[in-house]
Amino acid sequence: xxxxxxxxxxxxxxxxxxxxxxxxxxxxxxxxxxxxxxxxxxxxxxxxxxxxxxxxxxxxxxxxxxxxxxxxxxxxxxxxxxxxxxxxxxxxxxxxxxxxxxxxxxxxxxxxxxxxxxxxxxxxxxxxxxxxxxxxxxxxxxxxxxxxxxxxxxxxxxxxxxxxxxxxxxxxxxxxxxxxxxxxxxxxxxxxxxxxxxxxxxxxxxxxxxxxxxxxxxxxxxxxxxxxxxxxxxxxxxxxxxxxxxxxxxxxxxxxxxxxxxxxxxxxxxxxxxxxxxxxxxxxxxxxxxxxxxxxxxxxxxxxxxxxxxxxxxxxxxxxxxxxxxxxxxxxxxxxxxxxxxxxxxxxxxxxxxxxxxxxxxxxxxxxxxxxxxxxxxxxxxxxxxxxxxxxx
Length: 393
Fold this sequence. Notes:
The protein has 393 residues and is mainly α. The protein has helices at 6-25, 35-48, 66-76, 81-106, 109-121, 123-127, 135-151, 158-172, 179-188, 194-223, 233-241, 262-279, 281-295, 308-331, 339-354, 359-362, 366-392. Among the domains are: 134-228, no CATH class; 280-393, no CATH class. The longest helix has 30 residues, at 194-223. The protein starts with 5 loop residues before the first helix and ends with a helix.
């Protein structure tokens, strides 16, 4: 049987995954399902109405800008909900192709191909295409950013692309802005000459700053303060650590906090949360481990997704791959290209242990989760095969 070409594999992965995603979104009703969808839509509508990228008064910098900007473009073209969902399916299908390309670059053709196939049918990646949430776009941008960082070992021109993609990912969710110094540590630890390392770091920094600067400039014009990300940090820090929180979404907030000016509210909630932690460090330690469990939970945490069907789907997708992911993670520690992914996974885990933990926040890591699981499975299979062969001989 003739081996499929790289181009044919990409086409099969793209159109196969696109078909699955469109079938799913056609089962959905013509409405929003989540509170965040309403808020992202409101930001886009306000922007088109000339009121700026804000959900409302007092929440002018609460949401990151990139996804609402994309929505505003769709709304300006008079696209309906089903059309927007289809565009998200297309973005997700490109993600599948990029998983194949990245897996091939980091590991091998076989690992890349099977990672792409699994990503194409992975339930969580199909699910989020149906909702006006940041997940689909953020998954693609995060994968693209890491892909270009991995490419730094081969092509110097990827530095600019890495900076732009990391900046765009940071404008979709500010957590990726914090990854910038982590990426610099990887580059510094490389074997290249110091001059080459500094050149790459400078290019990444310049293009990253160019990408995020319009949003930072806008925030300074609105708040007269330096706000690189959003004013949501203190809010989620409190939500994940207040006296009534178990580490997930918790709607208990101090009385009157919504009336405080937005940037001051952010600082105040950070201080109040720090006070709560200092008063009861034992509970904070418990929250850390509970948030770790929530972040890596095999079954959904949210009450609305505890039905047997949701639990079964989660166990048979994420759960089945978990031991192979752990194996692949550790077996690939010496792989220089994979080390950008190792640090990203550790960084996301620690960040959400400190702030707020949910399976939803883990989903952007799951393209890499699949790659490591496939790598771990094949390495294990090779080891078993070699043991059996040795025993037979």
